[in-house]
Amino acid sequence: MSSSAQFEVWAPFAHEVRLVVNDSEHPMSDDPHRSGWWVIDPDIVAPSAGQRYAFRLFDGTDWSKPLPDPRTRAQPEGVHGKSEVVDADFPWTDSAWRGLHLRGQVIYEVHVGTFSEAGTFEGVAEKLDYLLELGVTTIELMPVQPFGGERNWGYDGVDWFAVQDSYGGPLGLKKLVDAAHAKGLAVFLDVVYNHFGPDGNYNGMFGPYLTAGHTDWGDVVNLSGPASDEVRAFILDAVRQWLDEFHIDGLRLDAVHAYDDRRAFSIMEEIRRVSDSVAEKTGIPRTIIGETDQNDPRIVNDESVGGYGLSAQWLDDIHHCIHTLVSGERQAYYVDFGTVEILADTLRHAYRFRDTWSEYRRRTHGRPLDLAAIGPWRMITYTTTHDQTGNRAAGDRPSQSLTPTQQVLKAAVVLCSPFTPMLFMGEEFGARTPFPFFCSHTDDELNRLTREGRFHEFARLGWNPDEVADPSDPETYASAKLSWEFDRDQDEIFEAYQALLGLREQYNFAREDLRELQVENSDTWLTMGYEDVVLAANFSAETVTVPVGGTLLYSFGDPEVAAESTTLGPWGFALIER
Questions:
Q1: DSSP 8-state code for residue 444
Q2: In this structure, what are the phi and psi dihedrals at residue 546, rounded to the nearest 5 degrees?
């Protein structure tokens, strides 16, 4: 908790509650105004910044050990230790920051622990000038809520109001946001509200935070059952904290399709309303992005047409189209992709499936999206992400198996599209370090179960289990640290990304209406563009001639650009002014 008027906790499962402060225990009382809440008179003990505290619960038979606060703001002793009272005040210097609207942004996804050698918010802050030089406008941090140990992707978080201590804690995060705003960069935060991590999750001892069922990652959060009002308030208060107190510019909601939300008003609508209220209060825009593979336009559609009204969604479909064409992989969900025709169709419509058949799912999937009504920039696209790299057996990046020409070809399609692009840290220089899944659960049995679960899942998807790195091995984490020493090929890839991002801004590829986009294709090549500028791309190992021409703006190779046609080498592309 932040330093406030009194200690309090929602614990409807408890028969009695005791507050533990400075190794002393104090009985708490029922709050007469709020069902299930326990409070203590501040005249007995009041919170002050830096205090360590915990709660003990009596279930009618036994007293629990001291447990961290479900709304803890800091866990300096780890997820099993005492909570710390945090002073919410911070000497912000970003009063001139007016924020960024999503259209026209370039997002850069960062894992704090592996982005720099230090593995801290300060390490990220040291690279802000580099990101500006590249052409990035927004940093998106993978989840920073506390998890077991000091190595994790972040999706095993358990304390939704707190910040991982080894990254720099809440103070470190605020310093990073303040520094980013000073340089004109926005900061998004990835948050997980579909499950709690398995290590250090004591919330179920306090109250009905969970309900029957299981996601692929943990128990289901109680968004619809009895007492779910308080659970939803738990989420919404955390959302407001990040957007208001921490000055975060936007949130990415992890796997919203895994929400067990059967109420008339979606939790996504309520999150967006909190975001809107903070934006109205501050005059600074806030962005809410949903991750989903459902091809469901309700995510971004306005409430007036039955939607949830989120700012944007992650769109895996473009990634899958490009990845299969360039890599040749067709296993698992990639079976639904793999032709230039499918890429062209997806570029025209954003969703691959629009109430159409999916071979992977063995059923029809999706629904058409009216991009003319909402704007194509509300789709977030990419050549890879933490998921698309890390959920491979070896966690190998595309840059570890593709040539520089193939890598930049993929980037050109994403960066010259009308959708909002996102880069995954290191792709802009062809990083050769992998990004495998890693964790450091404090329980050996949890580590064993996680390891075996990964092996089983990869075997089911057709990967060789022998290639799967042990998630709990410190070397797995160490292997994911980015190396910032570039060779000549990496310098050239960086310069290509930088050039493409500059041209994206110059020619305003983030256009308002997808109907302006002109897409033509054959079995091996594709053109994509507008009346003034067009990208010609060759998705084959053969030389091809494409029926568009003009003046060459940029290419990674040596195309022959004439007035009416362009000849591209293997995996080549040309950005042409008509």
A1: H
A2: -115, 135
Domain ranges for the chain: 8-84, 517-577
| Residue 561, φ and ψ in degrees, nearest 5 | -105, 115
In CATH terms, the fold of domain 8-84 is Immunoglobulin-like (2.60.40)
- Tokens representing residue 256 in the block: 């919203």
Check if the beta carbon of residue 447 is closer than 8 Å to that of residue 471. Answer: yes
Average pLDDT, rounded, for the chain: 95
Helix (H) or strand (E) holding 346: helix 340-349
Name every residue whose Cβ is closer than 8 Å to that of residue 343 and which is 6 or more positions away in sequence: 318, 321, 322, 325, 337, 413, 521, 526, 539
22 annotated to bind ligand: no
Q: 54 has which bridge partners?
A: 20
- Annotated catalytic, 150? no
- The one catalytic residue among 156, 254, 261, 296: 254
- Known catalytic residue: 229? no
Task: Tell me whether residue 240 is annotated as binding.
Answer: no
Quickly name the fold that domain 517-577 has.
Immunoglobulin-like (2.60.40)
Set 156, 269, 291, 345: catalytic member: 291
**77-101 pLDDT tens trace:** 999 999 999 999 999 999 999 999 9
The reply to whether 129 sits in an annotated binding site is: no
Q: CB of 543 within 8 A of CB of 569?
A: yes
CA–CA separation, 163 vs 73, rounded Å? 7
- Whether residue 256 is annotated as binding a ligand: the answer is yes
pLDDT digit string (tens) for 131-165? 999 999 999 999 999 999 999 999 999 999 999 99
